[in-house]
Amino acid sequence: MLKTIVKAGSYHDSVTLMLLTNEVSTVEGVNKVSIMMATPANKDIFKQGGLETEELMAATPNDMVVVADVEEESVLDALMERVDEYFAKEGSADAKKQGAQAAKSWDQALAQMPDANLAVISIPGAYAALEAERALDEDMNVFMFSDNVTIEDEKKIKDKAHEKGLVVMGPDCGTGIIQSVPIAFTNTVNPGSIGIIGASGTGIQELTTIIDRLGEGVTNAIGTGGRDLSAEVGGTTMLDVIDAMEEDQTVKVLVVISKPPAKEVADKVAARLSVCKKPVVCLFLGEKPEYYEEGFYQTYTLDECARLAVSLVRGQKVEEGTVDCDRSRFFKKEDKKTIKAYYSGGTLAGESAMLIKEALGLQDCAHQEGFKLNADGNVVIDLGDDVYTQGKPHPMIDPRTRVECMEEAVDDPSTGVILFDVVLGYGSHEDMAGALIPAVKSLQEKAAAQNRNVFFVAEVCGTRNDFQGYDESVAKLKEAGVIVAETNMLAAKTALQAIGYDFIPEQKETRPKQVRECEVSAPSEKLVKMLSNKPKVINIGLKSFAEVTEKFGCDVVQYDWMPPAGGDITLIKALNFLRNYEGFDIDEANRKVIAKVVAAQPVLKDNVPAKTVIPQLNENNGKVILHAGPPIEYKDMPATVQGSCVGAVLFEEWADNEADARKLLESGEIQFVPCHHCNAVGPMGGITTQNMPVFVVQNETDGNYAYCQMNEGIGKVLRFGAYSEEVVNRLRWMRDVLGPTLGRAIRSLDGGLAINPLIAKAIAMGDEFHQRNIAASLCFYKEMAPIITDMDMPQDEKSSVMKFLADTDQFFLNIMMATGKAIMDGARTLTDGTVVTAMCRNGVNFGIRIAGMGDEWFTGPVNTPQGLYFTGYDGEDACPDIGDSAITETVGVGGMAMIAAPAVTRFVGAGGYEDALNTSNEMTEITIDRNPNYIIPNWNFRGTCLGIDARLVVEKGITPVINTGIAHKIAGFGQIGAGTVHPPIEAFQKAVLAYAKKLGFEE
Q1: How far, in Å, CA of 591 to CA of 374, rounded?
Q2: What is the per-residue pLDDT across 365-409, written as a single tens digit (0 to 9) for each?
Q3: 801 has pLDDT over 80
Q4: Any residues with CB less than 8 A from the CB of 117 and at least 6 apart, and which?
Q5: CATH superfamily label, 327-504
Q6: Please, what is the average pLDDT of the chain?
Q7: CATH class of the region 602-820
Q8: Domain ranges of the chain
Q9: Domain ATP-citrate synthase/succinyl-CoA ligase C-terminal spans what residues (predicted)?
C-alpha cells in the first residue's frame, strides 16, 4: 500500500534526501520508498516510479514528501522514526561544526558578507538561473553547479555577466579551483603555474590530478559548463577567462579543454588562442589533430594534454605512463570479447568511448541517453547522466547503480573487460574503492565458477592529498585483482589490450603557429581580481561545498536556500523584475511610504453618530450596512457575520424581530459596503450603521480622517455575531449615553487627544494593541475620567460610563484601529511601491491593498484562527477569520509586535516569551524598517516593525502574524476564544504580480 507523509515547509537539498532514501529503504516491510522535495520535476519522478499519490500532487516545492510502498501501515512509524533520527544526527553534526555563517535569504547573506564576490549555486535547475541573475545584480561572480538550466537562460545570464565584467561558471559546472580553493566536486591539487579553462567536471579533475601526480600544480581551474562553446552561447565565459588568465602573471601555461565546439565558436576561440602571449595546450574532446603549432598545441586525450602542459612548464618532455599487469592472460582478438565500461564521469566516459571506437573500428551509432558507446556488444555508459541520477544519488556518491551494471555485464558471456573509474575528492564517496570491491570479488568468483575470465580495469582519478587517499585506493583495488592505470587513457588502452586490440598514440610534428585575426579585449578587473584572491563565497545549496571552501581559508556564508515565492517561476521572475525595475527606485518609493507612516500625527477628535461623518450611510434611504473585509454579498457572509447584520437591523429598528430582520437582509433592500471604502474600519464583523457612534481620528500630517465604532466589551457582543436583546440594548446605551459622553469629553480637549504619545506609553507597559490593550485603555481612561467627573450629566449615566470604561480592557482597540486606518490612508496617498496599506477579512476572503495598486483588493481564502478556547469550545466551533482589526498589524503592532505583550503570548497560542521573540524577529524579515515612535523596551528598545513589503512576503513565504479573537461559527454564541491567524499568501502573490504587470512585466 502507498502511504504519503508531507512535511510542509521542510526544505532539504537533493543530495541529502537521496542519501536519506538509501538509509530508510532498508527498513523491514518497506518495498519501495522515495523522499524528495515536491517540485514539479520530482513529482514526475515519483510518477515514473509508481509512487504518485493525491497528497504528493497537492504538496508545494517547499514541502518534503515521503512516499512509501509498505506492507503494513505500522511500518510507516518505523520508517519515519529512521527519518527523524537521520535529521537529528545531521543537525547534531551541523551544530558541532564551527562552520560557515548561515542565512535564510539574500538580504541576510549580504548583510553578513557585503563584499562577497562569488555565489556557488547548487539548487534545482528551475531556479538556478534566477538566483544567478540575483547574484550578478549584487556584483558577484557565479559558479553554477546546478544543471537543467535552459540554454536561453544560460545565454542571458552569461551576456549579463560579460557586460558587468563578471563571469558565470556553468551551468552544470561540476569542478572549479580558484586560488587553490576547491569548488564543488574537486580534488586537493597543489598550486602551480598551469591555468585551466574547461567545460567539463571530470575532465578538469582528470587533468589537474595527473598534473599534480606529475609534480606540478594548478592554482586556477575555471569550469565553463558544457554548452559554453555552443553556437547559442558563443563561448562567452571561456573567452572572458582566457583574457583574464593571459593577464595572470602566475600562469605560465594555459590549458583549454571542451567538448567539440560549434564551428563559428571554435574559430573564434582558436583565433583568440593563436594570439595568446603564453603557451596554450588545447583539447576539443573527440577531435583528432594531426599536428601541433608552435605555442598552440592541440591534443587528443586528457593524458596527452596534461603531460604536454607539464613538459612546457619544465622545458623537457614528460615520458608516457605505463600499466603494470600480467598481459599473458589477455584475450586474443579472435576470442571476440567485449568491453563494458561504467563511468561516474561523463568526460572520462566520452574519452574511453572515443578510444575504443577508434581501436575497434566501430561506426558511430544512435544510442539512448547515458550511452557513450553501444556497438557490437561494447558498451560505455556515463552513469552520471540525468537519466540515471533523477531521484538517485550520483555514482560518485553511491556505488549501487554501477554494481548492478557490473552484475549484468558478467551475465553476458561476451564480456571480457569491465572498465570503470574511481573518482576521489570532495563530493565523492569516502571510500568508493572499498565500496566496489565486494561486488568485484563476488563477480570474479561467479565468472571463475563458469570457467570464464573477466578482467576488471580501473582508473583512480585523484591526488595523494585527497582525503580518501590515492595510494590507499589504488592498493585496495590491486589487492582485489583489479588492474589499475594512472590515467583514463591508459585504462582504456589496457582494456583494449585485454581483448586483443591496441592503439598507439600518433607522434605529431610541430609547425609554425598560424596567427588568426583577432581583436583582443582588455581583461575585466573584477575577473582578474577573482583569480588573484581567495573568493568570498555565498554558498547557495549544498552545505558540503561551504564546508570545503571554508576549510581552505575562505570567508563563507551558507545560504540555507528554499525556493522563493513558493517555487512559482512566474512570481520569481516578477520579483526580479521589480528589484531591477529601471523606471524608478521601488525601494525608495517604499521608503517614502513608510516615512509617511512615521510622520503621521493621529489625533482623536470626536465621537459622533456614524451618519454625520460617513456620507455613504445616508444613501439608499439610510439602509446601508458597513462590513469588515473586502467586498462581499450578504448571502456569502458566514453565519456569524450574518448574525451581526441581524443585530444591526434590530438596533436600527428596520425590523422588530429576527425573522423579519433576516427577510429584509435577504431581500436586497439593504446596501452592503466595506468599511474600508468609507475611511472606516470595524472589528470582527465590522458592522456599522447610521446611528452607531464612531471615534473620529484625524491624521493631522495629511489631514485625512478615519472612523471606527466603539468596543462593546467581550463575550456575547455584536461584533462576534450575537444579536440578543442584551446585545441590542447595550448598543442603544452606547448610542444614547457612552458615545455622546465621550464626544463631549474629547471635544473639550484643546486640539483633541494625541494618540502617538499614548501608544508609546502603553507599549512600554506591555500592550501590543490587538489582543492586549489594557494599559492603553487605562491611559485613555486616565485622560477621560477627570473630564467626565466634572461634566453636567445624570449621576447614574456618569457612573455607568466610568464603570464601562474601567471594566473594558479592550476599549482602546477600536481607537487603535481608527488610528491605524488614519495613518495608512495618509501613507497610501503615495501611489508607488509594494508596502501593504491595508489587511482585512470578511470570513470568506482575506484582502490586502498595496501602495502601488491604490484601492484594488487582492484576496485569498481566509484561514481559521488557531489559539486557546474558552471552556466547552474547540477548533470545530470556530468561525473563519473576520474583521478589519488587522489594520493594527498593517501599521506594525498587534501580532507584528508580539514581543511587546508577553502577558498574552500564551493566550494567543504563541507559547511564551521565546516564541513571542521568535515571532517578532521573523516579522522583521518581511518589513522594511522599525518605527521610532513605538519603542519596545524588552526588544532591546527597538521600534515596532514598519512597512510590510509584499515582495518580501512572497519571496520568503512568511506571512504576517495577526492576533485575533475567535468567534463561534454559529451566530448568537459570540466570542469563544483568542489566538493568531496568518493571511493566505495568495493575496500577496496576486498583488505583487499585478504591480509588476502594471510596470510592464510580461509573463
Answers
A1: 63
A2: 656 778 999 999 999 999 988 788 776 788 888 899 999 999 999
A3: yes
A4: 139, 140, 141, 526, 529, 530, 535, 536
A5: Succinyl-CoA synthetase domains (3.40.50.261)
A6: 92
A7: alpha beta
A8: 2-96, 98-171+536-562, 173-320+518-528, 327-504, 602-820, 831-998
A9: 343-495
The three three-digit cell numbers of residue 480, written as one number: 582485489
DSSP 1-61: -EEEEEETT----HHHHHHHHHHHTTSTTEEEEEEEE--HHHHHHHHHTT---HHHHH--T
Pairing assessment for the beta strands 509-511 and 882-883 based on DSSP bridges? unpaired
The segment with the largest mean pLDDT, out of 15-19, 49-53, 198-202, 235-239, is: 235-239
CA dihedral (439, 440, 445, 449) positive or negative: positive
Would you state the torsion angle of the CA atoms of residues 714, 719, 721, 726, taken in this order, to the nearest 10 degrees?
Answer: 60
| 844 to 630, 646, 987: CA distances (angstroms) | 9, 18, 13
Whether the CB-CB separation of 101 and 556 falls below 8 Å is answered with yes
Residue-level pLDDT at 869: 76
Could you tell me the CATH superfamily of domain 173-320+518-528?
Succinyl-CoA synthetase domains (3.40.50.261)
CATH class of the 831-998 domain in this structure: alpha beta
Q: Which three cell numbers stand for residue 466?
A: 585527497
Q: In which element (H, E) is residue 849 found?
A: strand 845-850
> Distances in Å between the alpha carbon of 732 and those of 609, 683, 723?
12, 18, 12
Say what the pLDDT of residue 98 is. 45
Instruction: Look at the chain and count its residues.
Output: 1003
Separation between Cα atoms, residue 309 and residue 307, nearest integer Å: 5
If we measure between CA atoms, which residue out of 185, 328, 170 comes closest to residue 237?
A: 170
Indicate the burial class of 913 (C-beta count within 10 angstroms; 0-12, 13-18, 19 or more): middle
Q: Please tell me if the domain spanning 2-96 has the same topology as the one spanning 173-320+518-528.
A: no
Which CATH number is correct for 98-171+536-562, 3.40.50.150, 3.40.50.720, 3.90.226.10, 3.40.1190.20? Answer: 3.40.50.720
CATH architecture of 2-96: 2-Layer Sandwich (3.30)
582 CB-contact burial (10 Å; exposed 0-12 / middle 13-18 / buried 19+): exposed
- Do 339 and 321 meet the contact criterion of CB atoms below 8 Å apart? no
The pLDDT score that the predictor gives to residue 95 is 47
- C-beta of residue 640 within 8 angstroms of C-beta of residue 687: no
User: Which DSSP symbol is given to 123?
Assistant: S
Top mean pLDDT of 70-74, 579-583, 854-858, 875-879 is at 854-858
- The burial class, CB within 10 Å (0-12 / 13-18 / 19+), for 588 is exposed
